[in-house]
Amino acid sequence: MKTRVLLVDDDPSVATAVGGVLLSEDYDVFYAQNGEEAIKNFRTNGAIDIVLLDLCMPVKSGWDTFEGLTAIDPLLPIIVITARSDQYQLSEAAGVGALMEKPLNIPRLLDIMRKLLAEGPTDRLARIAGKSPHTLHPQLLRTN
């Protein structure tokens, strides 16, 4: 069975470019243009293996989306994608799988995806232990 990726980005050019690469790498790709759509898509399609999540989106911010997705599946590997360089500390505190700045380095993205997908539940839990976004101050979650 193919690895299922949820790609959440409101920029059609980014979604098309990154999605095209993922499809060529034999991933199943599901798209969402905003956070509400991402959470709905995640619930509908189930069994999503990894999420690529842009932070600056309409309707529901990336951090609110992160919080919603991890409320459903706390061990879900999520790679946060942003054009903002000031998100590293918040990403680390939230326990994201990785933070990547735009423009994306595609070979690095694919490498990080492989590493996160290779983690077992015990390794993933150890990585995110004590870093739940639900323990962060609510104002910090709404930085977009």
Explain the overall architecture.
The chain is an alpha/beta fold. The protein has one domain (4-141): Rossmann fold. The protein contains 7 helices and 5 strands; from the N terminus they run E-H-E-H-E-H-E-H-E-H-H-H. It has helices at 12-24, 35-45, 62-72, 88-94, 106-118, 121-128, 138-141, and strands at residues 4-8, 28-32, 50-54, 78-82, 98-101. The protein has a 5-stranded parallel β-sheet with strand order 2-1-3-4-5, with helices on both faces. Strand 4, helix 4 (88-94) and strand 5 form a beta-alpha-beta unit. Helix 2 (35-45) packs parallel to helix 3. The longest helix is centred in the first third of the chain and has 13 residues, at 12-24. The termini are far apart.
**Low-confidence regions:** 132-144
Structural class: alpha/beta
Question: What's the helix-strand series?
Answer: EHEHEHEHEHHH
CATH class: Alpha Beta
Question: Summarize this, please?
Answer:
The protein is α/β, with parallel strands linked by helices. The protein is built from 7 helices and 5 strands. The protein has helices spanning 12-24, 35-45, 62-72, 88-94, 106-118, 121-128, 138-141; strands spanning 4-8, 28-32, 50-54, 78-82, 98-101.
List the helices and strands and how they pair.
Blueprint (H helix, E strand, L loop, with lengths): L3 E5 L3 H13 L3 E5 L2 H11 L4 E5 L7 H11 L5 E5 L5 H7 L3 E4 L4 H13 L2 H8 L9 H4 L3
Parallel strand pairs: 1-2, 1-3, 3-4, 4-5
Helix pairs in contact: 2-3
